[in-house]
Sequence to fold (245 residues):
Amino acid sequence: MEQLSTLWQPLLDWMNGNDIFTPNTFAMYWTGLTNTVQLVFISLLIGLVLAVPLAIARGSRNQVLRKSIWFYTYLFRGTPLLIQLYLAYYGFAFIPGIQETWLWFFLDDPLYPALLAFTLNTAAYTTEIFHGSIQATPRGEIEAARAYGMSKAKMMRRIVLPSALRRALPAYGNEVIFMLHASAIAFVVSITDLTGAAYYIYARFYAPFAAFLFVAVLYMVLSFSIQALFKYLEKRLLVHLKPAS
Fold:
């Protein structure tokens, strides 16, 4: 009987929720996965929308505008994302009177300060990526556009930006993967992301190796999926750069 009880013990532990891989823990991992994907996707999307005009303005002849954008990118690329997240979540709470304004509705929820910090951080890096791609536009393309009588705005919209965005794809793909990995710090402001789910399960079952190894595999699957997507986009959009066979 004792041997039979030993054989059935793992199944009983699983049914009672005393095992690290149960429907309850998988539900926790699923919550962490969806929160991570949403946080990264939204911050990247807003950051991309912000970065395109900032990258254009980064090359402006207006020194005040150009230096202001340079200072913003230097500030957010020169400080750790974790510090930016702490400032966004904890720092605003110490502004006098902020808790009596409508802004507190957003600042009191950890999701919005995290989105703010992640968005401003990725927008800074993406601005520099796109600015470099714009600056690397071949001179011949610019001269051809001028020969057609295009205005600066039309040339930027039809010639420079499409060409620059294609060249920026490899570097931007790395930025997307970096943001996915950097999102692992979101749990420090009580967001249940993948790392937060692993930390909870580790504390519940005291099984750090299994809990964090499983999350590492999930991060690897997401990273390789993103890498495959950008490889496909590069193959489609940069086909003209391949040498003729």
About this structure: The chain has a mean pLDDT of 84. Residues 23-58 form the longest helix (36 residues).
